[in-house]
Amino acid sequence: MQKLLTELFWGNEELHHAAAERCKALPGYWDAQLEYDKVAEEVQALIGFELHDQFLMRLNQYSGYETRAYYSLGLNLRQDILQLLDP
Q1: What is the rounded CA–CA span in Å between residue 17 and residue 10?
Q2: 60: number of Cβ within 10 Å
Q3: What is the pTM of this model?
Q4: Are 29 and 23 in contact (CB under 8 A)?
Q5: Cα torsion at 75, 36, 53, 56 (round to 10°)?
Q6: How far apart are alpha carbons 29 and 45 in whole angstroms?
Q7: Are 32 and 38 in contact (CB under 8 A)?
């Protein structure tokens, strides 16, 4: 089951595209992206591409675990609500 969910949600290019489109529609997203890009360039200039790239890879990996944990809690919450509403 876990493998199926992983394939459905984490390996789904359509889902990634839809999420990217939703981000673009969020108020403040573009400003946040510009601010991030500016700081990321400064950090990369200070520590070099290799270390910066390694840091980003590890941060994304770590954040992915947290995102999955929060998402799974949301799925459980929705399941609990549906069960309560089901007569």
Answers
A1: 12
A2: 10
A3: 0.61
A4: yes
A5: -30
A6: 24
A7: no
DSSP code per residue over 31-87:
HHHHHHHHHHHHHHHHH-HHHHHHHHHHHHHHHHHHHHHHHHHHHHHHHHHHHHH--
Residue reference for tokens 């070099």: 48
- Token readout for 23 is 């981000």
Report how far residue 8's alpha carbon sits from residue 28's, in angstroms, rounded to the nearest whole number: 29
Q: Quote the mean pLDDT of the chain.
A: 83
Which tokens in the block code for residue 57?
A: 């890879």
- What are 16-35's pLDDT values in tens digits? 888 889 999 999 999 999 99
CA distance 66 to 3: 18
Hey, what are 31's tokens? 């400003």
For tokens 């359509």, name the residue. 14
